[in-house]
Every structure is written in structure tokens, then in C-alpha cells.
Inverse folding.
């Protein structure tokens, strides 16, 4: 029964205290014409209602969550404890001389520089796409400062995250798409044809969305730089290389990171994000302000000479910065490197378990994620990648990313992350292999799955185009 069906007139969860202040009469235009339709229930019913709702949600604390390119990994609770310290939660953003908070931001910026090979960072952007947009505004400001106004095109490979061309378009650039080669890497010949005097930047994530490290990255950097463009690093896939190789050493000029992915702050419905942007010295004067500088142990805000301006109120999502800072300091240099190695090891182990049953684009080795194709299974049985993903929900497992990247037909992208155990990976592989056999023997059953979840198969296109944002 719903909480409305359990409602009885006059029941209350707790009595309201008598008013001890003078009643204030609101302007009638702000008042409802009729009372809100709220259920009247006792405290126990209310508690059970919200407890039942909480059990309908699925998160990384509930089970395996291999959502590719999104890095839905375990969030260490020590990070949450650090972010909950009263010294961080009770300060006001206008207390701009709070040395502890300023030192944290300065040290975090230095750590991110060390990890990425950049020279300076801004911590303001609120998410990855916001970081992309910020970096592209810096790139535009850089070219304009050199009176190089003809550079109005941004190049991106066909395997790029969808936010790359979207961010470039928002920044006022024209987007040029180049194909991938047969091995899943950026096509060098196509890139050489695409670059020119109008090239502002090339946006790339390495490893790419297929989970493949682009061995041609130095050649790519040379091609872009010789044309006068800048090389932009989408940091969504930093996980398997952090502490091992740095974007700055590959030739990238600017990078955004996802603290809510790579550095373990809760992701998605778990809280706000953070997408810091780092750059080499040639772009540092265009960073958003304020940045933090240190002088003989004293920390203060500063404004880069040709700053593009602020991109978010105050200093970014500060408590997310605290969580990322705690994560980096807990792991240290060796821990960061080991985390990267484990993310690649886990992905390769799971891929090895599945490649006998599904074609994998990374035939030999992948980095932190891999993509399988369900095209052959669909041709043989009619069971699609969507059907298989929905069936995983009945097994207590969150589905991987579906139908991305678009260059792989019937794609499922898995990212097991470094925080999962071998037992978890074996259980996931067993589930997927079992579903594969079931598809061969009883394909019709898949078109009704999932059967055990609160919601089965909503009209996802309608939900996206016509969302209901109020009750």
C-alpha cells in the first residue's frame, strides 16, 4: 500500500509545538487555493515509507556498478568524515582569509599539477563538462590575445565523449569530427587533413572511450602544435594512468579532471561534482579567478592577469575538493600509482572472462575499461545490448554503459574500477555468461526484463523529451 492509502485523517507523526512568535500574514497571492494533498500518518508509517524508498535506490554501496567512463567506484568514508569537519562546514565563503581552507586548495592544486604535468590549476568548475567549457574559453582567449581570430574550429574524434563537441559549440567554435582508424585510435591521416590555420584545439581523452591508450599521442601533439592549435585533455579517463604517465608529458596544453570520478568524491545522485582545469604556463594568465597563491607560508587569493573571469560563485564546490584532497593524501604517490594499475588489471581480467562470448574491441589489452559488442548475439537471438543490460538488473547488478561509443554496434562498456575484488568480478562474469546462454535458449524472456525492479521498462525517449519535474 502507498503512504496515501495508509493515510487517516487526524493522524500525525509528531505534534507541532505551540507558536511562540507573532503570526505573520502572507500576501494571499503566495497562498494555495486549497490545502496540499499530504498524507496523514503516524511516525512509524512515515519511517517505513522513507526506508522503503531508500531500498529502491541502487548505488555503488549496494553492489557492482560497472558504468563505463563514469568511474562509479567506492567512496572511502574517511573522505566523507574529513568533509564533515566543522572547520570546513561552518566557514562562510566570504571569510576569504581562512588559512586552512586556502592551504587545502593550494596544496590540492599543487598535487593535481604533479599528477597531470600541468603548471597551474583552477578549482572553480563544478563538473567535467563545465571544466571543458572553461578550458575552451581559455583557449579562445589565448588565440584572441595573439590576434589569431581565425582559429574558430575544434577537432574531436568520433569516439569522443558527447560533452566535447557540445562544450565546443557552447564556446562558439565549429566542430570538426575525424574518424577512428581500424585499431580504434585517432586517424593520423584524417587529423593532418583536418588541421590548419583555423584550428583552435584538438580535444582528446587518452586512453580513449574504447579503453585503448593512443600510442601515437606524441605524433598527434606534433601535428596539432605545428598547425598552431592547442591540445586539450579530457580527464574522464585519467584513472588507469595517474601516477604512471602525465598528460603534460604527452604534449597536452590544458586538462580538466573529474574529482567526482577519478578522486572518489560521490558521483551522480551522491552529490555535487567538481571539474578543475589545469594548464601549462602559456595559458595560466587566462585561468578563472580567484586562484590561490602562497607567499612565505601565507595563502591568499589572486587574479590571473588576463583571466576569463569567474565561472562559478566563490571557489568551486569546496567540500568536494576536501574529499579529493583526503583521497590523494591517504593514498600518496605510491597509492595513486597502484590504484591506476589495479583499475587496468580489473578491466583486463573481466574482459578476458567475457571475450570468448562477446567480441571485444580491445583484443589484446585494455586500460581501465573495455567495450563488447552484442551485435552477433542480437543477430542470432534478437536479444539486444539493451535487453542484456536490463536482465542484469534482475541479478542485482547495475548495467554498464549502453550503446556508447557509437562506433561500436550494440555496445556495452564496462569499467570495473580498481576498488572491486576478484570475487566480485568473477560473480559479474558468471552472471553475464549465464545470461548469454539463456539468450541462446530462451531469447523471448529477455524482452520483458527486468522483472524484479520497481520500474521495468519506461519510455526512455519520452522521459528525456517530456520530463515530469513536479508532482
Amino acid at each position: 500500500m502507498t503512504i496515501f492509502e495508509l493515510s487517516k485523517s487526524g493522524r500525525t507523526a509528531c505534534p507541532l509545538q505551540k507558536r511562540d512568535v507573532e503570526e505573520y500574514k502572507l500576501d494571499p497571492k503566495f497562498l494555495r487555493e486549497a490545502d496540499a494533498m499530504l498524507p496523514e500518518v503516524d511516525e512509524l508509517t512515515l519511517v517505513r515509507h522513507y526506508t522503503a524508498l531508500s531500498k529502491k535506490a541502487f548505488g555503488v554501496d549496494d553492489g557492482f556498478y560497472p558504468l563505463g567512463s563514469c568511474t562509479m567506484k567506492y567512496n572511502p568514508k574517511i573522505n566523507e568524515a574529513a568533509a564533515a569537519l566543522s572547520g570546513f562546514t561552518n566557514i562562510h565563503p566570504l571569510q576569504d582569509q581562512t588559512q586552512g581552507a586556502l592551504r587545502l586548495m593550494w596544496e590540492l592544486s599543487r598535487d593535481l599539477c604533479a599528477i597531470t604535468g600541468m603548471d597551474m590549476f583552477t578549482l572553480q568548475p563544478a563538473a567535467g563538462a563545465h571544466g571543458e567549457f572553461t578550458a575552451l574559453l581559455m583557449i579562445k582567449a589565448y588565440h584572441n590575445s595573439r590576434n589569431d581570430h581565425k582559429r574558430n574550429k575544434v577537432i574531436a574524434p568520433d569516439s569522443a565523449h558527447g560533452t566535447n563537441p557540445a562544450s565546443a559549440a557552447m564556446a562558439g567554435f565549429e566542430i570538426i569530427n575525424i574518424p577512428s582508424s581500424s585499431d580504434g585510435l585517432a586517424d593520423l591521416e584524417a587529423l593532418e587533413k583536418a588541421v590548419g590555420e583555423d584550428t583552435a584545439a584538438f580535444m582528446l581523452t587518452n586512453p580513449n572511450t574504447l579503453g585503448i591508450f593512443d600510442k601515437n599521442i606524441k605524433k598527434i601533439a606534433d601535428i596539432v602544435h605545428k598547425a598552431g592549435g592547442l591540445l586539450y585533455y579530457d580527464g574522464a579517463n585519467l584513472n588507469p594512468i595517474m601516477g604512471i604517465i602525465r598528460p603534460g608529458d604527452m604534449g597536452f596544453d590544458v586538462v580538466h579532471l573529474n574529482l567526482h570520478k577519478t578522486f572518489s568524491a560521490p558521483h551522480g545522485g551522491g552529490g555535487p561534482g567538481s571539474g578543475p582545469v589545469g594548464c601549462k604556463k602559456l595559458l595560466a594568465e587566462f585561468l578563472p579567478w580567484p586562484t590561490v597563491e602562497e607567499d612565505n607560508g601565507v595563502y591568499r587569493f589572486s587574479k590571473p592577469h588576463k583571466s576569463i573571469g569567474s565561472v562559478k560563485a566563490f571557489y568551486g564546490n569546496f567540500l568536494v575538493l576536501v574529499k579529493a584532497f583526503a583521497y590523494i593524501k591517504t593514498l600518496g604517490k605510491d597509492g595513486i600509482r597502484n590504484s591506476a594499475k589495479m583499475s587496468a588489471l580489473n578491466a583486463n581480467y573481466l574482459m578476458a572472462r567475457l571475450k570468448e562470448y562477446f567480441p571485444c574491441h580491445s583484443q589484446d589489452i585494455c586500460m581501465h575499461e573495455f567495450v563488447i559488442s552484442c551485435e552477433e548475439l542480437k543477430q542470432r537471438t534478437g536479444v539486444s545490448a539493451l535487453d542484456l543490460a536490463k536482465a542484469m538488473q534482475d541479478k542485482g547488478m547495475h548495467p554498464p554503459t549502453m550503446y556508447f561509443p557509437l562506433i561500436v554496434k550494440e555496445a556495452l562498456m564496462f569499467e570495473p574500477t580498481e576498488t572491486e575484488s576478484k570475487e566480485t568480478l568473477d560473480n559479474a562474469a558468471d552472471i553475464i555468461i549465464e545470461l548469454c546462454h539463456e539468450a541462446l535458449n530462451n531469447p523471448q524472456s529477455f524482452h520483458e526484463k527486468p522483472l524484479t525492479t520497481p520500474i521495468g521498462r519506461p519510455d526512455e525517449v519520452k522521459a528525456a523529451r517530456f520530463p515530469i519535474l513536479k508532482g
Observations:
- Residues 165 and 334 are 35 Å apart (CA to CA).
- DSSP finds 15 helices and twelve strands in the chain.
- The longest strand covers residues 199-204.
